[in-house]
Amino acid sequence: MFNYKYIITYVSLLFTFFVHGGEVSITIDDFNFNDQLLSGEERNNEILKTLTKHKIIAAGFVTTKYLSLPNAQNGVEAWSKAGHLIGNHTENHFSYAKTNFNDFSNDVLLADGKLKVFKTFQKFFRFPYLKEGETEEKRDQLRKFLISQGYKNGAVTIDASDWYVNKRMLDKLKVYPDFDKTKFRDFYLKHLWDRTQYYSSLSQKTLGRDVKHTLLLHHNLTTALFLDDLIEMFKSKGWKVIDATEAFNDPIYKLQPKNIPAGESLIWALAKDKGDKTLRYPAEDGEYEKAEMDKLGL
Ligand SMILES: [Zn+2]
């Protein structure tokens, strides 16, 4: 006779053994407090509520031109009060690939001046579009500049296109206000899990280990509506959602890949350095998700 109790114990042990998850932190960019169905303030409250619920310290990379929008200054202040790390994402969100060194470095300093008022501001810099310079000279000029200013690279390890899912959802809701948002949620979760697995295995392949990840999200409606589901998904897959402050202690964030054009996910760039032939460029873009979303009517 089978003893089902033993079988269940055995299967769950196997599950624990094989489904060993990684570690991921939440980082949120831009802080554009425009209206996206919810106001910037409402989105901010939703995101903060979810982070508090899960007792997670996230990192917010603020593009400071948005601080002049209604409730943005208070919204970022609320992040600081809740203990979340505030980092620099420039004043104007220029792409470094399309901007000269002087203009770009001035833009970094402009943001720096505005972010100093927040208590949890730390000198972590995140490149807009993850573009770190299209020539060796520009790349090294800015790296030197950031070091001289005491900045560390607030690099992304798990890049994704949450911004694209958000854009498609807003476009859809404009035409069909009653469209079922859970269809976007399901695609969003699947997409982010797919990218997480990709960068996790690329890390194993490139570095021989998995790292403490930084996942790139944006201060958008998708984050306000789906962040809780996303964190729950990671947990259900055996992943640990860790503080961004802990993730940035991983020694990987000190590495400076040599590839040109510089940038993309840090793991992608390190893999490129090693001569990995399987990489696409750009590493992530809405174009890669378009066909599937079209097919699903999203
Ligand atoms: Zn950005």
From TrEMBL:
Protein name per its UniProtKB record: Polysaccharide deacetylase
InterPro entries: Glyco_hydro/deAcase_b/a-brl, NODB_dom, Polysacc_deacetylase_ArnD
Keywords for this protein: Hydrolase, Metal-binding
PANTHER family named among the record's database cross-references: CHITIN DEACETYLASE 1-RELATED, GLYCOSYL TRANSFERASE-RELATED
Lineage start: Bacteria, Pseudomonadati, Bdellovibrionota, Bacteriovoracia, Bacteriovoracales
GO biological-process terms attached to the record: carbohydrate metabolic process
TM region positions: none
Recorded GO CC terms: membrane
Pfam families reported for this sequence: Polysacc_deac_1
Domain NodB homology residues, every copy: 23-133
Tagged with keyword ATP-binding: no
MF-aspect GO terms: hydrolase activity, acting on carbon-nitrogen (but not peptide) bonds; metal ion binding
SUPFAM superfamilies: Glycoside hydrolase/deacetylase (SSF88713)
